[in-house]
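Below is a filled-in request sheet from our internal design queue. Each sheet records the structural input a requester submitted and the sequence that came back. We keep these sheets so that new team members can see what a complete request looks like end to end.

REQUESTER: design group, bay 2
PRIORITY: normal
MODE: inverse folding
CHAIN LENGTH: 297
BACKBONE (tokenized):
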């Protein structure tokens, strides 16, 4: 988060190729500097938005590019997750008091919050599927901000819920609602509605599965039906961690970029554009206004 800027620039200065973890950094200006510095070096730079390579998302991208949904109208995204197993119950919290303050978990300035944690993967997915975003509105919410510090109650400003609306430069918009405090929450899904068809990518956890599922239908169909996913999009499984197949595919692209002298997507440019949107959600929260995205730079 905050150290990514310093560490990435130091690595580039040392002549190293870089994969940077998300979120890219904490400010759009810093993200732009990272992208421009990477571009000036000619080194291979990518950002770890590995879920571009989850098979369901890759197949949905192919269908969209083939014109399956026609003109985009609306994308609805839902990410509603309950408390993790072993987390404190409301009764225990009332007895024990608020948890201790931790800047890395509780401070927006340190890049904390649910939006910064999970939002980049969903924003990158939307940009990958539908292109640049021209304006953003949204709101960050912390529904349980009390923390303990040196015997006092202090407030965390990092969000545990977020909402945003993105307007795409090529038309259509996306709306996302997310919470990590939704007990018995329904999980996650992305629903794409266009002039000619619909695509739905359900998932059971925070992240899309390596070997995902795509449901789709077009005008004249009886209803949503599961679409076959070609083996070329899911060439292997990795039982150690379901996130590893897409990450290993990203690393293959990174190695190809080093061989060819390129920076395959998702690269530092994508990290910069994503950071613009993240910061615009924060600005919209503060002002209550829709925030335009500068696409000139």
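RETURNED SEQUENCE:
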């Amino acid at each position: 988060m905050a150290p990514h800027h310093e560490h990435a620039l130091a690595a580039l200065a040392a002549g190293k190729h870089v994969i940077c973890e998300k979120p890219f950094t904490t400010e759009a200006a810093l993200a732009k500097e990272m992208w421009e510095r990477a571009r000036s070096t000619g080194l291979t730079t990518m950002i770890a938005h590995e879920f571009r390579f989850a098979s369901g998302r890759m197949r949905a991208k192919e269908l969209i590019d083939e014109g399956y949904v026609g003109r985009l109208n609306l994308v609805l995204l839902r990410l509603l997750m309950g408390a993790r197993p072993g987390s404190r119950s409301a009764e225990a919290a009332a007895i024990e008091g608020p948890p201790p303050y931790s800047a890395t978990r509780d401070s927006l300035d340190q890049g904390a919050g649910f939006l910064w944690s999970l939002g980049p993967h969903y924003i990158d997915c939307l940009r990958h599927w539908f292109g640049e975003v021209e304006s953003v509105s949204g709101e960050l919410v912390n529904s349980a901000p009390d923390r303990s510090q040196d015997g006092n109650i202090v407030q965390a400003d990092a969000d545990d819920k977020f909402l945003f609306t993105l307007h795409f430069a090529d038309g259509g918009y996306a709306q996302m609602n997310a919470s990590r405090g939704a007990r018995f929450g329904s999980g996650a899904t992305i629903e794409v509605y266009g002039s000619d068809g619909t695509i739905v990518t359900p998932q059971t956890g925070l992240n899309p599965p390596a070997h995902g599922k795509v449901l789709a239908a077009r005008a004249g169909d009886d209803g949503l039906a599961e679409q076959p996913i070609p083996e070329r999009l899911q060439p292997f499984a990795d039982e150690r961690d379901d996130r590893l197949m897409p990450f290993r595919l990203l690393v293959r692209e990174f190695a190809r970029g080093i061989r060819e002298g390129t920076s395959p997507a998702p690269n530092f440019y994508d990290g910069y554009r994503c950071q613009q949107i993240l910061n615009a959600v924060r600005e919209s929260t503060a002002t209550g206004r829709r925030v335009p995205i500068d696409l000139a730079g």
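SHEET NOTES:
- The chain has a mean pLDDT of 92.
- DSSP finds eight helices and 13 strands in the chain.
FILED BY: M.R.
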